[in-house]
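Record format v2
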Amino acid sequence: MSLQAARDDASAPYFDAAASGQLVVRRCDVCDRLFPPAQIECPSGHPLTWSPVAGTATLVTWAVDDGASTAAELANATGDGEVIGIVELDEGLWLNTALPGVDAASLRDGLAMRVEFLALGGGEPVPVFVPA
Amino acid sequence: MDVTPQQLRGAAIVGLGITETGKVYGRSAAELAADAVRLAVADAGLTLEDVDGLLVSGGLSGGVDIRLARQLGLRDLGLLSQISQAGSTAGAQVQLAALAIAGGLATTVAIVHADAPLKPAARSGDAYRRSPGQVATGFSGLAAVAGPRNPNSGYALAAQRHMNRFGTTSEQLGAIAVGQRAWATKNPMARFREPISLADHQASRWVARPLHLLDCCMVSNGGIAMVVTSVERAAHLPQPPVHIWGWAQTHPGYRMERGSDWGLVSGAAIAGPRAMQMAGITPADVDVREIYDCYTYTTLITLEDYGFCAKGEGGELAASGALGPGGSLPTNTGGGQLSSYYLWGMTPLSEAVIQVRGQGGERQVPRHEVAIVSGNGGVLDFHSTLVLGSQAR
């Protein structure tokens, strides 16, 4: 049983970009700040636009979720959990993400990472990060 | 109307009611809440007719709301509200009760939290674990795939960041679990009363690495209530009043971007100094610390944020043994949510009341003039601090 991501109207531009291999986030041009994809509006009330980012990042922190598996593709290198993490995009924004296929013991603060997209269960492609 | 600091500090906790806690089945959360209020009012030497304010808090199971006033038969209340700010609720209930009393809304306020998330056939962790859906739509799909899916993994991310930055170790977190269990062995109300060793902590299964099972709180059914009234009224009541000296809340709203200190500090870093300033004390004046301990890590960073050690040195402090029985900084003296009972912010607050009164029995700390109490909710999203004292101030 694999988890599957599905689009709705609000997320359609995000998943369209992901399908072409492009990670996008939300941006306020007035405040010159980036926000996570799900952010609806700038705290100062300005409109947000979709903005491409390079897809390169550094690792802030990580954890191994030892609970029930959500998708085989997300398993860690030792097959006993799923590694999740927070990465800092080169543009400065932090993202919660999954780190599939890695050995948590090999991770360290500031490790260079790059985005990949996984279409779990045949659903919409979701961004994950792997060591660069 | 100007309210003076003396008026703000003019309230005290005069009643405490704790139901049976843990795997308590057959009573709804609302029934547990009503039982807790009755116990607290009786403990205060009052009757329900004396109560003219009620602040209720429910947990996961729901069903605890303002209808509790009718269930208890309360009449002509001047204050009635349901509030929820997760683990920081209990501290906020005390603050709002004291403000309501200072502002003339009520004279005698009952505050209560009750929950009954445990079911006889289910594992405790199931109560807080979101089951992954087959299809997750929109941005919720992203979050389900790519982030912390429950509080355990959220706090695991925070703890790992503290480890990365300060070199905090799992063994140091384990020392907190071991010390709190040592306190729990002396607490007849505690669910887990067998001593544990650091080796036991290290051998306990992973819940979300770097957190072992023994780094994590339990889940409990039960209810805890308190009665807050004016210092003047408190003087005529049977229990030693627990005076409310200082308070603050901070809900940090961390920006998750470059430069963020998420995971390294909590709202306690702002609320703690504010509450101690209102009370006119410093950390050196605090006799007993009752710290919200959803995880060992939460105890550790809160002690740092309050200034009981320098930032980043919480691990060394824990490993020194200072927090346990006989240590120089007694902390979570009932065993906390790790070892005694889990009723959100009422867990540390109830133990603080017991200690300041001097009713801790075998676990009573010798000096108990001043206590500090923290409440923490979300994943470091919500925080409240109280400073309590045995004397009027």
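Helices of chain A lie at 12-19.
Chain A touches chain B through 48 residues (CB under 8 Å).
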